[in-house]
Amino acid sequence: MKRYLFLYKDCAPVYLVEVFNMKKIQNRILLSLGLLLTLTLLQSVSGVEVIQIPAGRDNTLFESATGTLSNGIGPNIFTGLSGGIAPPQIKRGLIWFDVDVNVPPGSTITSVTLKLSLLRTRDLSSRIVELRRVLQDWGEGTSNSGLTGGGGAPATTGDATWLHTFFNTAFWVNPGGDFSGTVSGSQSVDKLAGDYTWGSTAQMVADVQSWLDDPNNNFGWSLLTNESIIQTARRFGSRENATVANRPLLTIEYIKIADLDDSGFINFADHALFANEWKATDCEALNDWCNRADMAPVGNPDGNVDYLDLWEFVLHWLQ
Ligand SMILES: [Ca+2]
Ligand SMILES: [Ca+2]
Ligand SMILES: [Ca+2]
Question: What residues does the ion ligand 1 have nearby, CB within 5 Å?
Answer without folding.
Answer: 58, 140, 238
